[in-house]
UniProtKB/TrEMBL annotation:
One matching Pfam family: DciA
InterPro entries in the cross-refs: DciA-like, DUF1159
Composition-biased stretches (Low complexity): 1-19
Residue ranges with Basic and acidic residues bias: 80-97
Native organism: Methyloligella halotolerans
Top-rank taxon, per record: Bacteria
Region of interest: Disordered: 1-31, 74-97
Protein's name in the database: DUF721 domain-containing protein
Length: 192
């Protein structure tokens, strides 16, 4: 036993078979998705989501088509009533039983999502297994990554765009007209 411990400590210092901490052994590669979900869990909790499951499985809950232009933004849970002596004397106020789902929606699609609100709430509640969401609010905001339009590399000027007998004295004007003609030709070819 003592020889094995000495072997471990010498092997650990020389980068051998055992790790520096014998309790912690190499577990191989871990999937990045699991680590990312664990890292994002506190941020999701701050937004009212008890787990990342709703965010991760949003497309399967509401359907791929609806998920393209919607994303859950937050869940607002009702506050728990405080029990004091005053509350016993006053009649109990009716509080909502479930949460409010704030849904981020691309602007032009907000009317469509408002029309589908009941169906979306039913699907979310069936995902949770109980009536978790009783109200839905729509927040018009971009969903997904914003993409910049792709820039095309300028085509080399096509001198055949202008007739050869075109007499244009100003070289800058001639070059600009050639570039304009080349761009028009390019867009015409793209439409076909």
């Amino acid at each position: 036993m003592a020889g094995e411990t000495a072997e471990r400590s010498s092997a650990a210092s020389s980068g051998g078979r055992y790790a520096a901490d014998p309790k912690r052994r190499a577990q191989g590669l871990k999937p990045l998705g699991g680590l990312a979900a664990r890292a994002l869990e506190p941020a999701a909790r701050a937004r009212g989501f008890t787990t990342m499951a709703l965010l991760e499985q949003w497309a399967s809950i509401v359907g791929a088509g609806t998920a393209k232009y919607t994303a859950p933004d937050r869940l607002i849970w009702p506050r728990q009533p405080r029990e004091t002596a005053e509350d016993e004397e006053q009649p109990a106020r009716k509080r909502p039983e479930g949460a409010t789902l704030v849904l981020r929606v691309d602007g032009p699609r907000s009317i469509e999502v408002q029309y589908k609100a009941r169906q979306i709430m039913e699907r979310v509640n069936s995902f949770f297994g109980y009536r978790a969401v009783v109200e839905m609010r729509i927040k018009q905001a971009p969903v997904g990554k914003l993409t910049r339009p792709q820039r095309h590399d300028p085509l080399p000027p096509d001198p055949t765009v202008l007739p050869e007998d075109a007499e244009i004295e100003y070289e800058l004007l001639r070059d600009a007209l050639v570039r304009l003609g080349t761009a028009a030709k390019r867009s015409q070819n793209r439409k076909v």
